[in-house]
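Researcher: I'd like a candidate sequence for this fold, 416 residues long. If you have to choose between options at a position, lean toward the conservative one.
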């Protein structure tokens, strides 16, 4: 669908675009939504974001540059202790949000860009003046949960059907990687006639280039030369335990002198409203204590953009531990900051990281991760070599200009 456009011509004012997003927090999906909104606004589009939850203090700074509206936050996020019924509640919240926009907001718009939850699409179809709808599929939601009981399978069956059926109602479907495109085809059998296009996320290089890195004296003990960094939300599926286990394995491979110079920072999005965040943070802290890693690990929760840039600027290497990650924006941010990445050899990192060039792709076990970590200690020049290659790769394949152009083409050429 994306095509060439004459850059010598003034494209004129673009369409008005409304983004619908469930919860504007600090994850990769939220990063993409903000980058997409900013890219379209730069192209002359009138842009606004509607969400069921927005806390300016717990969101990327760029959100404050855009008109963000919130409706439906009074609705529950789950049906009880342990986060049960979260999927159903997310569907209800997004349907309510879409109804509010259509019936109560008085907002006029031409195009809707929604992601994560497709259940709102039928509501948007009820508009008197037809809205063109683009759905960005980060990953099929039905694959993000276990069905370990009959009741869970019974509960999920209608939700899974709604997801597949309503996803197919979008005018255009794009995904974040070729990996997700293949999963989409394998998962949504009734949508086999649809070939979703790949729109790779990009890095918001403006904020990276303009930021002045801060010193990390308050986060890293003195004398630490080899600083490893994990950036992920405090969720079990992100497998941050792998980073800690690899650190234990690394300890056994190094001399005491080298080990004293090693430190790991575990930084991640943290929301006290999310029970798993609270529980998993405590689990990781307990693991550090039991493994006697207290002097070699620092935990950082809900860090600022400036802190993240400072961490990437100063660290030796990023440890990216999720398996089958849909895409993963952290490796791109790290490579742009000339920081190599050690990642699991599955999912999106297979498309972003070049093995032995911009980092290492490893089996998801502590031995392989620790072997890759050890290489940076015995050959410190590896960081500079791989760092330069990583930045060049991001500029070549994942530039914000390419992202903005491709997205603009999708939005302006959606079928009537």
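Model: Candidate sequence:
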């Amino acid at each position: 669908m994306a095509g060439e456009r004459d850059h010598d011509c003034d494209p004129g004012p673009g369409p008005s675009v409304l983004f619908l997003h469930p919860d504007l927090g600090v994850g990769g999906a939220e990063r993409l939504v903000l980058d997409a909104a900013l890219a379209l606004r730069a192209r002359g589009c009138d842009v606004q974001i509607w969400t069921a939850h927005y806390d300016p203090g717990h969101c990327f700074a760029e959100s404050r540059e855009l008109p963000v509206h919130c409706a439906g936050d009074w609705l529950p996020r789950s049906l009880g202790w342990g986060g049960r019924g979260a999927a159903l509640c997310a569907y209800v919240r997004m349907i309510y949000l879409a109804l509010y926009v259509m019936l109560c907001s008085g907002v006029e718009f031409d195009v809707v860009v929604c992601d994560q939850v497709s259940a709102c699409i039928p509501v948007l179809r009820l508009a008197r003046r037809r809205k063109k709808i683009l759905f960005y599929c980060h990953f099929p939601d039905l694959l993000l949960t276990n069905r370990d009981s009959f009741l869970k399978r019974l509960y999920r069956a209608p939700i899974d059907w709604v997801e597949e059926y309503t996803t197919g109602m979008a005018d255009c479907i794009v995904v974040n990687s070729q990996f997700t495109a293949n999963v989409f085809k394998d998962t949504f059998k009734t949508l086999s006639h649809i070939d979703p296009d790949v729109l790779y996320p990009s890095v918001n290089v403006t904020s990276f280039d303009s930021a002045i890195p801060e010193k990390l004296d308050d986060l890293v003990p003195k004398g630490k030369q080899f600083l490893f960094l994990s950036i992920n939300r405090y969720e079990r599926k992100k497998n941050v335990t792998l980073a800690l286990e690899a650190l234990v394995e690394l300890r056994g491979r190094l001399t005491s002198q080298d080990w004293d110079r090693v430190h790991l920072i575990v930084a991640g999005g943290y929301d006290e409203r999310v029970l798993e965040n609270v529980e998993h943070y405590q689990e990781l802290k307990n693991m550090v204590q039991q493994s006697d890693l207290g002097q070699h690990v620092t935990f950082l929760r809900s860090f600022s953009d400036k802190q993240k840039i400072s961490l990437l600027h100063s660290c030796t290497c990023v440890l990216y531990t999720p398996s089958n990650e849909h895409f993963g924006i952290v490796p791109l941010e790290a490579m742009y900051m000339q920081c190599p990445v050690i990642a699991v050899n599955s999912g999106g990192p297979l498309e972003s990281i070049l093995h032995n060039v911009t980092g290492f792709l490893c089996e998801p076990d502590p031995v392989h991760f620790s072997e890759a970590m050890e290489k940076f200690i015995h050959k410190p020049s590896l960081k500079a070599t791989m760092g330069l290659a990583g930045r060049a790769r991001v500029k070549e394949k994942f530039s914000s200009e390419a992202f903005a152009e491709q997205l603009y083409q999708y939005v302006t050429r959606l079928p009537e």
